[in-house]
Amino acid sequence: MKRFIIIAAVILFVSMIGVDSAGAQEYEIKFATVAPEGSTWMEVMREFDKAVREESNGRLGFRIYPGGSQGDEPDVLRRIRTGQLNGGGFTGVGMGAIAPKVRILDSPFLFRNYDEVDLIYEKFGDRFRDEFYDNGYVLLGWAEVGFVYVFSNVPVRRPEDMRGVKMWMWEGDPVAEATFKALNVNPIPLSVTEVMTSLQTRMIDAVYTPPMAALALQWFTRVRYMLDLPIADSAGAVLVSRRFFDRLPEDLQEILLRTGEKFMSRLTEKSREENRQSIDIIDEAGVQILDRPPQEEIARYEEMGKQARRELVGKLYSREFLESVESAIEEYRSQKAAQSE
User: Fold this and answer.
1) C-alpha 48: how far from its chain's center?
2) What kind of fold does domain 25-340 have according to CATH?
3) Which pLDDT score is estimated for 23?
4) Out of 94, 157, 166, 207, which could bridge 90 as a Cys pair, Cβ 3.0 to 4.6 Å?
5) If you average pLDDT over every residue of the chain, what do you get?
6) What pLDDT sits at residue 320?
7) Dihedrals φ, ψ of 294, to 5°?
8) How far apart are CA 173 and CA 191, in angstroms?
9) Residue 110, SS3?
10) In this predicted model, what pLDDT tens digit does every residue of 244-265 receive, in sequence order?
């Protein structure tokens, strides 16, 4: 009996040392996203979680719910408000429900390339971060989704061509609503989790998404064409509720912010590269890549984009803010044009 007690005591002592050295988890971030398991977004989130656990000595970590298992982005926000979740990975729809001004990043035909995108993040990023914070959320990092293209089952080249398709619209998205209004399209509003089934049943026959997402969500298997003209750049962000963040000790807050910025920057780089590669994969899979429209048609699209952006003044952002963003881009383009002469 004495021998048994001694052995038990040794085992207990060793296990206690193991717990102390590894660190016991004290805080768990319940985190949801519509990104599917196995996607690049989820791979980077897993790496982010691993880094947070290592740097915090196991005191902090994520419990991740991928693939829309907690519902669409509006559902995730409701769950955060009730305390069932603590944070999420969001695209424009979710971000806009928190900080409407941020939706300028998703507005149609605003950007022509990633240099222009980076310029606006650099010039206005602090304003966006402050608006998230003022509305109860902490930005851990931007997780850009990428340039958005139209995928369809009938050829779409000119604005008029879009009027003859059953176009999906993300339900409750004011930017998409204003965009399709400017294009004279009557879209079919659905949650993002309903899109695949709706493509299968022919309820819709056109969608808009970055190529990388078309692959990850398998939407590309249900379409025949892709127009080689980006209509917008889809922004994304990883956010946690300020209520949860403020409960964390300062050292864990610092780890979360620093590693979040690091891994989300990595995700943006990977997303940009994989979106380029995804177009080749989609092409090889049999989806026909329609040629970029002539410049006069692009100019018409861009004019409709301006119309849509002005439709959102007073709803998402002020006219002053819109003009400051557009002026920054126009100034940048003028400088680039002067340098090339």
Assistant:
1) 16
2) D-Maltodextrin-Binding Protein; domain 2 (3.40.190)
3) 55
4) 94
5) 92
6) 98
7) -65, 160
8) 10
9) coil
10) 999 999 999 999 999 999 999 9
